[in-house]
Amino acid sequence: MRELVWDLLNSRLSRRGFVAAMVAAGYTRSAAQSALQSLAPSASYKEGVLSLTRAVTGTGADIMAEQLTDAGVHYLFVACTSGLGPLCDALVTRPQIQLIQGTHEGIVVAVASGYAMASGKPGFAMFAGEGLPNACSNFYNSMRDRTPLVVMTVGGEGGREEDFSEAVKPFTKLRMSCTDASKVPDAIHTATKTASVLPGGPTQIRFSERALRQKNSSASVFSAKAFDIPMQLRPDSKDVEQAARLLLNSTSPLMLVGSEVTACGAMASMVKLAELLGMPVESAKTWGADFPSFHPMFIGKEALQSGGYRYPKNVDCFVNFGARFPTSTRLASGTPIIRASVDPQTIGRSTSVSVMLIGHLDLVARQLIEAIQSMATAQQIESRVASRRAACSAFTKATREARFAMARKAAGDPIPWYRAMVELNDLLDKDAVVVPEIDDDVQVTNFLDFGDDAKLKIGRTTGSALGWGVAAAAGVKLALPNRQVMSFQGDGGFLFGQGESLWTMSRYDLPVLIVIHNNQSYEIPRWHIMQAGASGDARRDYVGYLGDPDVDFARLASAFSIKGETVRNTDQLRPAIQRGIKSLKDGRPYLLDMRTKPVGIGADASWYPKFSLASTRTRKV
Amino acid sequence: MAACTLCHSPTYVTRFDRTPAEWREMVSFMVGLGAPLTADEIESTIQYLSKNFGSTKPLSGKGAGPAQVNVNQATLGELEAAFGLSAREAEAIVRYREQNGSINKWEDLKRVPGVNLKKLEAKNGRMSF
User: Cα separations (Å) of A192 from A54, A71, A101, A590?
Assistant: First the structure.
């Protein structure tokens, strides 16, 4: 049937011929007619087909470049490999495609993912198949975040037996192979659509170099329209009604929001729903900021409530918009749970759900609001929710003001990190984009003003595999060139091979402020390791301490022709941030090595397992 | 304590005693991470912790406190200064490690003749092997 549809769409088969061939293939005539009708994309069927494709002749790489251009690809993220040769030849006459190079494949995938998350469009990358194992951790991060990526690899004719695609099998929605130049557009179209349809995710196409070098090949490339077919699932109206009734009758509802809210662009609807019901909102582990961080209904991150709820008490209806279960949320047994998601595969797998709302989250929220408003008048709703809305607002105001007052008073050498966050919130643009990769992103959501009309948060990746953030910030800046971008890293995360990402930032003049929250420690692991047991008793920090060698990150940046400085105390903080912002205005990245004070279990222990091989030698060679 | 145990076990709190200034720093850190406390509650929490888990001796901060001394690499002078040993005791340690190889654990030090173990025990926190 696929071939018949393809021939029909390419005018190689008439409508009558299509129906006849379908019947001959065993379908009923009515089924064939139905299929024919569903294939008509517009009133003018023939025009529709013609507008979706155009003929191209050239090498396989020429066809690839034409297809990428028609798909709207401007940036192609690459790592060097000789297999890129045919594409380089094709680009000589196609300057519309800008290559952005990373120094290895893991960085390339992170840059592409940052670009995709910030732009809402798929990120396209290309490198050697042998590079796939290098890129595994960032493939994993992208799959966890459901980021639309199309990763094209080249190679496979060099006599190697390994199928490197196997390395990324668990972290891709689709893997395919293309060995024929005429099939290049099909492969790119399929992979792109698959990556983009919610829930998104990485796809991988393995091209043979021979196919890309194949001369005088003909193919039909797809127009941008063919990539832009809306796929917005609508929830079942009866399910929406049931959920609306549960929420309306609840005396203490609680809403959890997760990454799908940001992926669906549904934050405004979430706010409307929460305000309508006076419903407290908490955030799951997420790569976005799915609810305005300073909103009166926002009570913080769900993980903070894992021991039970300080506020609200006695939750009697829990609604989860776009966060994965299981969560660390603690609910009383039998509490009704409403679950809304675009991904039916995640619903009901580990948690007993009362109502499932499968659909695009913005549509779900809008329909839920309509249903609630149809069941009660505005006055009736208000009489039920006014007191809890006031209570939630009072709670968030008091705790937020206390947090900021505490942070503003803090001072010292090294810097208390919370003081640094207050300064950053004051000095960064109101609509700056922040790309965090630190232990827990509450460090940014508790102090920076995120929202639709405020700052934008992209990261930390929910995969949490370190070695993503700096490169991702480069991709974010490419997607949003006219917004200020800050990469916020721990020193430990930066040392996961992220220095090389500075190469890409420097090479392409990507004005990103790179702030390293340098407490010379993997702090959270140190707490976990030393909180009980012999190493804690002996004050021995076996793997957390990073102060020896005392890495000079500003000097590291200078090796990539990026200016930077070490910020040691709170007096130096504001001027240093201002110098960084000035550098961004001048078009260059800037690095702040912000020396922060380690706190908590083991912070006082400077012991680590010293070893010097040099001192054990019997020959000084 | 109820605000603390929303996120972590009480061990995180009770593991080490701290001075009031250190408890203020720790509570500020936790409030920064999201511990849901009002201004009054922050103060009462610091007072409670200082009273029940207080210390007059500060835990030394990284970079601010005395450095670790490796007993296998330290010179005679360093051993004397770091552990309050006499010149003779320091010489005994150096002689022991030259004759027997590296000192790998506390138990090994007990075998060094002529060293006052109580002096070493008092400075155990600075010792590395």
Answer: 18, 9, 21, 34
